[in-house]
TrEMBL record:
<dbReference type="Pfam" id="PF07726">
    <property type="entry name" value="AAA_3"/>
</dbReference>
<keyword id="KW-0067">ATP-binding</keyword>
<protein>
    <submittedName>
        <fullName>MoxR-like ATPase</fullName>
        <ecNumber>3.6.3.-</ecNumber>
    </submittedName>
</protein>
<keyword id="KW-0378">Hydrolase</keyword>
<comment type="similarity">
    <text>Belongs to the MoxR family.</text>
</comment>
<dbReference type="InterPro" id="IPR041628">
    <property type="entry name" value="ChlI/MoxR_AAA_lid"/>
</dbReference>
<dbReference type="InterPro" id="IPR050764">
    <property type="entry name" value="CbbQ/NirQ/NorQ/GpvN"/>
</dbReference>
<dbReference type="GO" id="GO:0005524">
    <property type="term" value="F:ATP binding"/>
</dbReference>
<dbReference type="InterPro" id="IPR027417">
    <property type="entry name" value="P-loop_NTPase"/>
</dbReference>
<dbReference type="InterPro" id="IPR011703">
    <property type="entry name" value="ATPase_AAA-3"/>
</dbReference>
<keyword id="KW-0547">Nucleotide-binding</keyword>
<feature type="domain" description="AAA+ ATPase">
    <location>
        <begin position="37"/>
        <end position="178"/>
    </location>
</feature>
<dbReference type="GO" id="GO:0016887">
    <property type="term" value="F:ATP hydrolysis activity"/>
</dbReference>
<dbReference type="InterPro" id="IPR003593">
    <property type="entry name" value="AAA+_ATPase"/>
</dbReference>
<dbReference type="Pfam" id="PF17863">
    <property type="entry name" value="AAA_lid_2"/>
</dbReference>
Length: 320
């Protein structure tokens, strides 16, 4: 599968989702990147901005199984993974899979669950498997967690730990629609819900092929060093108590490769890296206590790093 093939695959998904979601092309692109790069997405926004609708539209576009989990303080890890129960007719124990066994899992208001339940997602998100009663179960392919949290209402919530945040490829915001987009939304949903008519446009086999082949997108050694320079600069920044981990540098590289493929290129440019640096890296930074009251302090750190780190000059391409 060449970059042009991945680009056409993404175009089909984008066009299909666009029948339901008005605008938000950049958000849709990041979800596509996350699926192909085997990443996960944290959507932080107020209720009613279309997060669930977007997740359902993407799931239908890829012919995937969609599950929504409402995270609450009394949610248990077994409510996610499933349980073994005794089947009286068969006189034996059977496994009843939980909602985590799906292609796209919407973890709604993830920060309302206890840390114990939140941590039960770590193995699923990192290794695409889950261990239950000593048995390891493989999860579906593709597998994407879209978690949401409300940035305004903090009462009764448990902040996501750094280890959990580090598992998300992107942290993004939907944002309110513009006036024109709001009008288009009212007109589109006035008669019926277009989601009900939405069908798949990409097969699971095509997505699996894209997940294998995007790594063929070439990256110059200078760009690898550029990624490392950006990440290392976050660790030494005066406003950062904890910088980006090596997992973050790998995430930025993978996302940049898919971003390049979505543009129809089989090579990465500095602009690919710069375009994704904030949504990939900002949520992985722990800011100093003196900066925590400042809005978007971690975003400001990444933006200042991008201004300071020299962009590499052109040079021959080398494979990753």
């Amino acid at each position: 599968m060449h970059a042009e093939t991945i680009q056409r695959l993404a175009d089909r998904i984008r066009l299909n989702v666009g029948q339901v979601i008005v605008g938000k092309e950049a958000i849709v692109d990041k979800l596509i990147i996350a699926i192909i790069a085997s990443g996960h997405v944290l959507l932080e926004d107020v209720p009613g901005t279309g997060k669930t609708l977007l997740a359902k539209a993407v799931a239908r576009s890829i012919d995937g199984i969609f599950k929504r989990i409402q995270f609450t303080p009394d949610l248990l890890p077994s409510d996610l993974s499933g349980i073994h129960y005794y089947n009286q007719k068969l006189s034996e124990f059977e496994f009843r899979p939980g909602p985590i066994f799906a292609n796209i899992v919407l973890a709604d208001e993830i920060n309302r669950a206890t840390p114990r339940t939140q941590s039960s997602l770590l193995e699923c998100m990192e290794e695409r498997q889950i261990s239950i009663d000593g048995t390891t179960h493989q999860l579906a392919k593709p597998f994407l967690v879209i978690a949401t949290q409300n940035p305004v209402e903090q009462q009764g919530t448990f902040p996501l730990p750094e280890a959990q945040l580090d598992r998300f490829l992107f942290k993004i915001q939907m944002g309110y629609p513009s006036t024109d987009e709001g009008l288009h939304i009212l007109q589109r949903f006035m008669a019926a819900n277009p989601l009900e008519q939405l069908g798949p446009v990409v097969s699971g086999a095509e997505l699996e092929a894209a997940q294998r082949e995007y790594t063929a997108v070439q990256v110059r050694e200078e760009l690898l060093r550029y990624v490392l320079a950006i990440v290392e600069a976050t660790r030494s920044h005066e406003d950062a108590a904890l910088g980006v981990s090596p997992r973050g540098s790998q995430a930025l590289l993978r996302a940049s490769q898919v971003h390049a493929a979505l543009q129809g290129r089989d090579y990465v440019l500095p602009d690919d890296i710069k375009a994704l640096a904030v949504p990939v890296l900002a949520h992985r930074i722990v800011v100093r206590s003196s900066q925590r009251l400042k809005k978007d302090a971690s975003i400001s750190i990444v933006e200042s790093v991008l201004r300071q780190v020299p962009v590499p000059a052109d040079s021959p391409l080398v494979s990753k």
